[in-house]
TrEMBL record:
It comes from Streptomyces wedmorensis. This is Carbohydrate ABC transporter permease. Belongs to the binding-protein-dependent transport system permease family. InterPro entries: ABC_transporter_permease, MetI-like, MetI-like_sf. The keyword Transmembrane applies. It is found in: Cell membrane. Keywords: Cell membrane, Membrane, Transmembrane, Transmembrane helix, Transport. Residues 93-306 form the ABC transmembrane type-1 domain.
Amino acid sequence: MTLTASQAPAPPGRTAPPRRRGSAPRRAWRTFSPYAYLAPFFTLFAAFGLFPLIYTAYVSLYRVELQTPGDMQWRGFGNYTALLGDEYFWLALRNTFTIGVLSTVPQLVMALGLAHLLNYRLRGRTFLRTAILLPYATSVAAATLVFAQLFGSDFGLVNYVLGTVGIDPVDWQNDTVASQIAVSSIVIWRWTGYNALIYLAGMQSIPNELYEAAAMDGASRWRQFFHVTLPGLRPTIVFTVVVSTIGATQLFGEPLLLEGQISGGISHQYQTLGLYMYEQGWGFFHLGRAAAIAWVMFLLIVVLVGVNALIARRRSRKEAGR
């Protein structure tokens, strides 16, 4: 015989207390508080990022002069078609591409080598890591003025050094290739240390077990670099290539201050798209055409970034399929 205790009946008039869900204003605050925290960023982005971009596209469809900005005449895509027929636009586009290649490729290669050296345990490596970042902290104007003196045609230090080894002086301001090399050297000097620290951070995230396994298999340091370091740095390399490409497309301060001309030299030999846009807007007062150049630069950056992303994705798919 089993005895079970009967459940005591609940007292009349008393029920289980309801679960507290908070008041309606508190629930509304919990729902919308994340948007309130993000609102300052989106407000600033809309005011200083999105609105100028849209307004520039709007202005690029009109003929607007700097002296009379309120007098706008509809041109449609006339500003864009005028660019296609302007030889100086194509010259600036070609100069932007050549200076971008001359500055980006050596810069990233040197940064990769410096990062590889700083990744080892060296004496004073903390000082070296700080020292290679100092050029990045230097202003564009100061760096360019110093390099303009170094690359002077008559009393420049570079021509003096070349003369000691029997090489004739080079006209760094008027020669096309020499002037582009001079502009590229300023970019290389300023940004190599910055990219080196990015590569160094990527190298330190690679597990040491991979290097130990490669060393046990008899791989030298060069083989470890090519078969362990470079594959582990592939996302970082893609990032630096994209950022350097964007910076090369927007290059402005270095070619402007090298000789102090918005034309980029006597024959426009180192005039970039940024200088060409400045010349059209504030030199010739054609704000509509300058806005069209700005949008061409924006679309060019989008295309270049898309191509880099597509190449990186295809390489990752090929490696994943092996």
